[in-house]
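subagent[fold] <- orchestrator: predict structure for attached chain, return tokens only, no commentary.
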Amino acid sequence: MIVVTGATGKLGRLVVESLLTRVPSAEVGVSVRDPRKAQDLAERGVSVRQGSFAAPGSLAHAFEGATQVLLISVDKMGEECVTQHRIAIEAAVTAGARRILYTGHAGGGSASRFQACRDHAATEDVLRASGVPYTVLRNGFYASSALDFLAPGLESGRLALPVDGPVSWTAHADLAEATAAILADEGCFEGATPPLTSGVALTFDDIARIAGEVTGRTVTRVVAPDEEFRAGLTGRGVPDELAGQLLGIFEASRAGEFATVDPTLKRLIGREPISLAEQLRERVARG
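subagent[fold] -> orchestrator:
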């Protein structure tokens, strides 16, 4: 059985939906904090289990019978993040999984300027020491983050962000489809995948231009000094530690940490990756 964690989240749900087009539902299990949110999956024959990385005791049942476990990284940064990942990896090993897959990052590294990428590197160390075959999915930076940074600029016409560098902003849907393909082919990508990225790396200058083309409104890219950006976040109630971590995205991007593009994602999904312009059109249409 393939067990997918975080299956009611944005990426996890898409992975499960794509996986169900490739393998019978009886071969798919999900580990979720609230099984009620996965009732529709249960009705389609998926084994729904309650499990949480923050509750180690819940994972023995959640991972029971798993041949492969997909660990979707938690939406946290720092020591708590790595601790929860370690708990989940140990539970998958104890459950007898033949392979553990983990949603890492194309820019993951212990020397990264972005905390989340350092967390991914630390988690990869735990995987290497686990003694179980594993696959790190080196996902490109989620394009939804770029659209979140863009949102205030669409309203005001002024996109004020720190100096950045090119980033291979990549769609959740594309990454989910690639993940399902890798899960369905248990023997592929032992150790780590190549970077799973869109076909182009964009700066926020590029994104401001694309936003103007998509919306017909002028969006002017303005450089905000790092500390001004950070102070703006804390002034809106963002905790100082998190504000610093968000600033790290820009520090890392201008150092070229997220600029890599690679054809592997295109090959896995059998088509061109979804462009940022397409994703912006969809978001604008949803209002």
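orchestrator: received. Logging for downstream: The radius of gyration is 19 Å. Residues 79-94 form the longest helix (16 residues).
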